[in-house]
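subagent[fold] <- orchestrator: predict structure for attached chain, return tokens only, no commentary.
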Amino acid sequence: MSEIQTLRAASVVRETKETQIRVHLGLDGAFPATAAFDDAQAGRIATPDGFLTHMLDALATHGGLALDVAAAGDVEVDLHHTVEDVGIALGAALRDALGDRAGIVRFGHAYAPLDEALARAVVDLSGRGFCVHTVPEALAQAWIKPTFSLDLVHDFLHAFADRGRFTLHLDVLRARNAHHAAEAGFKALALALRAAVARRPGGVVPSTKGTLTR
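subagent[fold] -> orchestrator:
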């Protein structure tokens, strides 16, 4: 099967005393027809928080990703463990789906507006996890809703970039509304990832050192 025909995908299960997460991720908008993905259904995203589900749906939709997530956690404590662990599992799935990262574009950047909010995302699938996430100072301590702070968005992004082994700079350049700030950021990230995971001819590892995995 040729490189172009091969669907890049991975499944990850993360279970702790705090959370139970299952992620199926397909980088090419579909899942392979193999036993590992028999129960995978693109667009099926179930988490204990509607806003988290909404953001994951935006990431998949605008990133051209096949994404199936089932998440449960100790939300009676708060949402932190669940949000962070979804980021960890999704990052691990991205890392596994990319494999040796040969034949990818590697870099991607995008802007995304949402009404008054404007976000910029720059991605390098470098093999190193690093995250810089900024929001306007007036929103630094903002809450999107009573149970979901904007800080939780940072927790997700940091976990996603760290376990996905990619560098992410996500800056919300302006925003008045915390929901818009978060959603514009997720959409910009989705678009940047879509560009970075795209294939380019030749199948070489896009690195002067010849590897993006160590």
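orchestrator: received. Logging for downstream: The mean pLDDT is 96. Strands lie at 9-15, 19-26, 45-46, 66-73, 107-114, 117-124, 130-134, 143-145, 148-149, 167-174.
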